[in-house]
From TrEMBL:
This is Uncharacterized protein. It comes from Oryza nivara. Zn(2+) binds at H26. One of its GO terms (cellular component) is endoplasmic reticulum lumen. Keywords: Auxin signaling pathway, Endoplasmic reticulum, Glycoprotein, Metal-binding, Receptor, Signal, Zinc.
Amino acid sequence: MKYPGQPQEIPVFQNSTFTIPVNDPHQVIVVISRPPIKVFFYDDWNMPHTAAKLQFPIFWDEECLTAPKDEL
């Protein structure tokens, strides 16, 4: 068999939390419908959110954001 089977789809709603069992192989795809988004990178699973690296803006959001106007 070339592929292990069909993926299991689980609907995730706004502001909801879901868990993945330990040691289960997984891929998580998240679709955000309204830009801009803020993406945080974590070095490991135990890293606190305050230590995560913010990647903003993402390249596809750059055209959605307007440049700040200089009022001076």
